[in-house]
Amino acid sequence: MEQGSKKGRFGGSEAANGLLLISPTAIYATLLLAAPLFAVVVYSLMVDSKAGLAGGLTFQNYIEVWTGRIDRALMLRSLTVSAMVTLVTVLLAYPVAYFVSFHIRQDRKSLWLFLITIPFWTSYLIRVFLWKVILGYNGVINSGLMSLGIIGEPLTIINYSIGSMIMTLAHAYAAFAILPIFVSLEKIDRSLLEAGQDLGESKLRTFWRVTLPLSMPGVIAAVLIVFIPTIGDYVTPELIGGGKLPMIANRIEAVMLKQNDKALGSAIAMTAMAIVALVSVAFLLLNKRFLKGQK
Amino acid sequence: MTFSAEKPNMIEFRDVHKYYGDYHALRGINATIKAGEFFSLLGPSGCGKTTLLRTIAGFEDISSGVVLIDSKDMANVPANVRPTNMVFQSYAIFPHLTVEENVGFGLRKDPRSKDEKAKAVAEALEMVGLKGYGKRAAHALSGGQRQRVALARALILKPKVLLLDEPLSALDKKMREQMQVELIKLQRQVGITFILVTHDQEEALVMSDRIAVMFEGQIAQLADPETLYRRPASRKVADFIGTMNFAPAAVLSEDASGVEVDAQGFGRMTLSPDQVMGGATSEGNTIGLRPETLTILFDGQNATDREVFGTVEEVVYYGDMTYYDVRLDGAAEPLRLSMRNVPGRPVLDIGAKARLGWSPSAAVLFR
Q: Pairing state of beta strands B364-366 and B321-328?
């Protein structure tokens, strides 16, 4: 390489080569992500009538969304469900990640991680149907309990409930939560745990004072990975909730396609996105605090 | 370096064995470490020295035998309640805490007030030369500073025994030598029993009151540095601690006053019983002489005891010292010897004839 000039292998400067390398992705992202997103933003500021989208820029749709009883209730339900799913998933994923990281022999760890991914070999839709078979009105649990004579008629609390939605989603996102927590636990220098005990703390206290804080970046990553997609989940409320417990995504679908009001639907979508962005930024800031002091 | 024997025992190993599956890591360790002693476990990697240290800390269970600390059996005593603290090889500084939070980590259960604890932390930092570093993030420290934090963090708890697992191996040479001196001073100041694990024989000789040399899970010799150097128990120990020249020897006669031998190249000599080592290893009879006990005699100098003749084969100039390889007339192996470079003393060239002065009193016989 000549001195003073940074020529890359394609002949241009390194910066130009970099741009060249990312350009297919960049073009793809621009056309298929940024452009539709921009369209949604524009839609949300227009008025949809029978005659089609029209009108100058107006916040009318947003005012309708933020003051509308249904939209607020559904947004709140979405937030509650995804917060509960996140909590349950991360709480259940942590012990699994901990077990694999601390109690499985080094050469068996990749096998364990592989086993954890097995449920993902079937599509999410099929797994949701399987949960429906288990939890449904005439499902495995209800018919089992009835044939044992424990209950007289099918329990309704286990089907079409928030609880069964949380269970289904928590199972669906388990591996996505286990992996980042596992990685952060793997990065912890094991002599730190011995040091904790050496300095007089029990194993439990050492976990509390050393392991947990050092694994927080993984926990926060898991929270984001679970929280962001579940808030916009569409399939689970439709199938497990039986359409009786719609979340914000179902509402957007109904407004966009059934009521054919693209402007209002876009405004709901933008609002949901803004809320997700807000929560994510809060967690990212939290993560920064925990990442401080770690390489 | 002298050590009075009246001091009480701090640590006792009684026939300690440790197996990892089929691997026999510790093979019957018997040793006693006195209170207030600076004790070193020295040996090549894989000899079991770190395992032995970790049995004191409570990080390794022993397969059989007894470990006593301050006359108490440590079986079933977990690491967090043992009266020991450790400076880890990696220092194990908590990366999510500041320097003072690291040093104060073990004070949670201390009944003192918050202010008194803060004062104790500040004093501990001052003791290791890190005054004013308390608020710094632990990850922003250099290797030497991390080690000082690890020391302060352990010593603030006033343990009966401080365990040091190769604490200097990650430092550069200058820093290492400086820390050796500081550790010796610190140990004298606090009076705590220090147990150091090291593979560096020079470090062990410089710092320790007594040293246990370990090979393959066993203690090969336990002695003070001078005995270890001048009277190594076996050829293996002699080879590990510095350099030694060996020459095959034939035993001519022996009685209570000593052994008369004929050593190849050196001739006949009589060695007193304390110069005769081993017998258990049956390495064949060999005499050993340290490089500095052989002296090149220049013109006009007379041997104080005996003389031998040879040819210079290699010269390595070290500034303050010159190392020579000299082959005695008719010998199979050249001898390594070291000469201090004093003003007016020439450095010989390769091929030069050399007259060497030596004394049988500096020799040892391995049987």
A: unpaired
pTM recorded for the entire structure:
0.83
Q: Chain A: nearest CA to B367, how far in angstroms?
A: 44
From A207's Cα to the closest Cα of chain B, the distance in A is 13
Distance CA A24, CA B123 (A): 61
**Residue in this structure with the two tokens 């807000």, named with its chain if needed:** A278
Tell me the shortest Cα–Cα distance from B181 to chain A, in angstroms. 25
**A and B: number of Cβ contacts within 8 A:** 69
| Tens-digit pLDDT profile for residues B184-224 | 999 999 999 999 999 999 999 999 999 999 999 999 999 99
Give the whole-angstrom CA distance, residue B111 versus residue B163.
25
Q: Does A197 touch chain B (CB under 8 A)?
A: yes
DSSP-assigned beta bridge partners for residue B17: B27, B64
**Closest to B100 (Cα-Cα) out of B146, B135, B131, B143:** B135
From chain A, the residues in CB contact with B97 under 8 A are 293
What's the distance, CA B333 to chain centroid? Answer: 28
Asked if residue B294 lies in contact with residue B308, where contact means CB atoms within 8 angstroms, the answer is no
User: Under DSSP, is residue B323 helix (H, G, I), strand (E, B) or coil?
Assistant: strand
Residue A222 placed within a domain: yes
Tell me which long-range contacts B187-190 makes (C-beta under 8 A, separation of at least 24): B187/B38, B189/B127, B190/B155
Find the domain containing A246 and state its range: 69-294
**ipTM of the assembly?**
0.85
Residue B194, C-beta contacts closer than 8 angstroms, at least 6 positions apart: B37, B38, B39, B161, B162, B164, B183, B187
Task: Give the chain B residue whose CA is nearest to the CA of A289.
Answer: B96
Contacts of A293 in chain B (CB under 8 A): 95-97, 137-139
Q: Which of B80, B89, B95 is closest, CB to CB, to A200?
A: B80
pLDDT digits (tens, 9 = 90+) for B262-300: 998 898 999 999 899 876 555 578 999 999 999 999 887
Cα B112 to Cα A176, B80, B84, B106, B159: the distances in Å are 45, 20, 21, 13, 17
Q: How many structural domains is chain A composed of? A: 1
Task: Estimate the share of chain A in helix, then strand, then coil, as percent rounded to the nearest 5.
Answer: 75, 5, 25
The CATH code of the domain that includes A204 is 1.10.3720.10
CB neighbourhood size of B234 (10 A): 20
Q: CB–CB of B198/B204 below 8 Å?
A: yes
All domains of chain B, ordered by start, with CATH?
9-235 (3.40.50.300), 243-367 (2.40.50.140)
- The pLDDT tens digits for B67-117 are 999 999 999 999 999 999 999 999 999 999 999 999 999 999 999 999 999
Cα(A195)–Cα(B60) distance, integer angstroms: 14
Partner residue facing A210 (CB), from B94, B109, B137: B94
Residue of A nearest to B57 (CA): A198
Q: How far is A214 from chain B (nearest CA, A)?
A: 7
Residue A74 within a domain: yes
